[in-house]
Write a structure and sequence with these properties.
This protein starts with a helix and ends with a strand. It has a 16-stranded mixed sheet that branches. 20% of the residues lie in helices and 33% in strands. It has 2 domains: 218 residues, TIM Barrel; 75 residues, Immunoglobulins (Immunoglobulin-like, Sandwich), CATH 2.60.40. Strand 12 and strand 13 form a beta hairpin. The chain is α/β, with parallel strands linked by helices. It contains 8 helices and 16 strands. The structure holds zinc ion (ZN) (2 copies).
């Protein structure tokens, strides 16, 4: 089986889904943020300002910065309700309508996630490690599509950029989530151009990109590129840019690794009796930069 990200027709489009501007607590104007990402070679961007009263509930309209080779998705980082630690929830909603209504004070994070999802957005649990999010917090959000496995801003500014622990617990509970790497850039530190998604789509337009994101037809990266994944119940074959490690993880402590030098193809055979309900693949290059596949479910092989 080859995941749709690799078997579907189209191209990979590089985008950052989580960014802030002067419409909330970011340093740069929406126009300048778009310009910086476009100049860096990104194909698309979502400016996801904090959708709270303090900033007058912004859905930053970046549509006027779209051009032939660069597009934008509209979205926001939304907040309502409190986590177990008493702090406010952070959910990333990409693909919101411009007229998305603010929460009333009673709206739970779960209901807000549902409302975002029903408005057409892909909803992600943002920076779980930075938030101190627990598994029971996360289990309340039944309308999440995805978890941030890497949040570059949180990694740079607090060394809490990782989402793998929470994601893997949720996968092992049976939640069919995808994973995203993002910047969460505010341009107040070196918190940009560090984590992104590579989305397979026929065209670089907001509608097709959003559908591919919701369908899980993408992978996430800090640098390495994944060209192909071919997996069945006996083995994994992967083609990538040069990497030194290919790692496969699954339920509980399940993991397998293949190490080498500047590998562009690798094969990992599964031991007899290995029956993790899900696996995901991580590749790591010589600089320690990673790329992550979305989870692959055994019942789809
Ligand atoms: Zn946040
Ligand atoms: Zn943010």
């Amino acid at each position: 089986m080859r995941p749709n990200a690799f078997s579907n027709d189209g191209n990979f489009y590089k985008g950052n889904l989580h960014t802030h501007s002067t419409n909330s607590d970011g340093k740069l104007s929406p126009e300048l943020v778009c310009k910086k990402y476009k100049e860096k070679g990104y194909d698309f961007l979502c400016i996801s300002d904090h959708f709270v009263r303090k900033f007058d509930y912004p859905i930053t309209d970046t549509s006027k910065f779209r051009c032939n080779d660069f597009t934008t998705l509209l979205g926001a980082e939304v907040h309502s309700g409190f986590m177990e630690n008493g702090q406010s929830w952070h959910l990333l909603a990409v693909g919101l309508p411009k007229d998305f209504k603010p929460s009333n004070t009673q709206e739970s994070a779960s209901d807000l996630a549902k409302r975002c999802s029903e408005s057409g957005a892909i909803v992600s649990i943002a920076h779980p490690q930075w938030s101190g999010l627990t598994l029971s917090d996360a289990e309340q959000i039944s309308y999440a599509h995805s978890v941030e496995i890497y949040n570059h801003g949180c990694a740079v500014d607090s060394d809490r950029g990782d989402g793998a622990h929470l994601l893997d617990l949720m996968l092992s509970k049976g939640s069919k989530l995808s994973l995203i790497a993002t910047d969460d850039a505010h341009f107040r530190s070196n918190d940009y151009f560090g984590g992104w998604v590579e989305v397979k789509s026929k065209n670089n337009n907001p509608e097709e990109l959003l559908q591919s994101l919701k369908d899980g037809n993408f992978y996430s990266s800090q640098g390495p590129k994944i060209y192909d994944i071919d997996i069945n119940k006996e083995r994994l074959k992967i083609k990538s840019s040069p990497v030194n490690s290919v790692i496969l993880v699954g339920y509980g402590s399940a993991s397998l690794a293949n190490h080498g030098l500047l590998m562009t193809e690798a094969e990992i055979k599964f031991p007899k009796g290995a029956e993790s309900p899900w696996v995901r693949i991580i590749i790591i290059d010589g600089k320690g930069k990673k790329a992550w596949s979305n989870p692959i479910w055994r019942d789809e092989l």
